[in-house]
Amino acid sequence: MDSHHAINKSNISGGDICLADSATTHTILMHKYFLNMRMMNAKVNTISDSTNLIEGSGRANIIFPNRTRFVIYNVLFSTKTRKNLLSFKDIQLNRYHTETVNENGIKYLYIVSNVSTGKKILEKLLVLSSGLYYTSISTIKVNAIMNQKFNEPNNFII
Prior knowledge:
Structural class: mainly beta
Radius of gyration: 19 Å
Helix content: under 10%
Shape: globular
Oligomer: single chain
């Protein structure tokens, strides 16, 4: 059985595609995940050359399919990115760990948490033929209720 998958809508449970990469030093996300962003221009060094790719940095919140939440404090932003990229460093900074496993011929990257009763598997990421693991991420929706204290004390705004 081939343990590699192609990214398609049946493998993604809503949200945007996110690749987990052990070689990247920073997470790179699309604009909608940022809580705050400082615009800047920065170069990225690759094997072939150096290019002005980074346009901003800041703090972001993401949520995974099984409701695991990440806060990432030094996220990079580029309009040129086509996919979200999650660094293993940011997985560890959120106090989670990773394990690669083979379940019935299917390769996964587990994101796990160590709890008092042992290890808890939080997320399972599938592997691509390139060797990168992927999942979907979404924004964390926040609803706030405010009392219109000064105008009408019994009315609330959602």
